[in-house]
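protein under study:
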Amino acid sequence: MLLAAISIKADTSSDILSRAANKLASAKSVSAEYTVSADGRSMNGSITVAGERFRIDSREIKSWYDGKTQWTYSAEVGEVNVTEPTPEELAQVNPFAIIQAFRSGFNSRITNDKDGSVTVEMLPKAKGDIKKTVLTMDKSTLYPSKIVIYLSSGSVLAITVKSISEGMRLPDSHFRYNPLSLPGVEVVDLR
């Protein structure tokens, strides 16, 4: 165990993020329970990720992304919006997307490495909605325990992962909106 801890300390932020991204990409699916806080409000939810695809379920928002198209239901508005989001937009909705985007879109550095976790600061290479991301990962699993996204608008999204587990391969339909799941809800195509 001591040898593993020594080798992780020698890793660069790119090494750690690369291993985390590869682990996430190779999993059949990953499910997590989380709390997201922003602008003085918090929301509990769950996410299931399989490659680029994801599905988010919370009381306030439901979202499906099949790798190209995203359907987002807002309970407050009472409608489903259909979009083809940018990688930056996906990173704000799917906290795991930021791990996979680090190779092309971010410079990174380790800011804290102790007590079984490692914290990596990620700065975008180009200006956009995301100003900075701080990602804390469990060293043994390489899965995130906390993700804080600082937006150019001044808002801060803090995502605390309560539990995370790997699962089985899921059908494509799991990541697509089914109109029968929300009968009578208006669908607005914004593509």
Notes: The chain has a mean pLDDT of 89.
